Amino acid sequence: MLRAIYLVAVLLVAVSCTELEQFKGSVEARELNESAEAVFKEKDFEGALSDWEEAFKLDPTSDETAYNISRCYAQLGDEEKALDWLRKSIKLSLTPRLDDPDLGPLAKNEDFQQIRLLASFAYDKVPASKVGGMDDTSTEAWDTYLAGDYEKSAELWEQIFRLDQSNDRASFNAACCHALLGNEGPAVEWLRVALKTVLLRFLEDHDLDNIRGSAEFKRISDTARKIWE
Description:
Helices cover 76% and strands 0% of the residues. The chain is an all-alpha fold. It has a domain at 94-229: Serine Threonine Protein Phosphatase 5, Tetratricopeptide repeat (Alpha Horseshoe). The longest helix has 40 residues, at 2-41.
């Protein structure tokens, strides 16, 4: 009995230490991101790159950090690495959305399957939760979603997107709600809107102008645009 209690205690300490390390890592990554953004504005692209690469080691799921690394390489004139990191940022951004269980009802939908295929072409080198600072409408949209009122939640997410058409989270959540309601058509259309919002933010950034003329950037851009056309 005492041995069992001891093992449980050790396990709890281990879990607590892991959570503490994860929290510490997220704080360090945020500080590095802030530092990188500041030196990037001063046109110290090598300094920004160093900070962002360290931040990515701490959080290798961050599409935003991967994208910022791409910006640095583009400004430094390294086309190959800029494009590699751009592909990585797109993959990190799109994959969690396309693999979301709430989109499960769309699995056999031909348009959805085409979107998944085109998305993979956009980030392959060779073609083959609640967040802080939400307003009352966002809070209500989440609450109705959690309560299973997907119709009301979809209506609220669509309203939020109409007020801020850069909000890919709102359009994506609207797609999820319609998918859960079995509304394949609206679900696919809202998913296209969400992916368009994400991809345009990456593809139209002026920090990538140095690689915009390359054939590989054009291929990524053209493939990405087919997702929402």
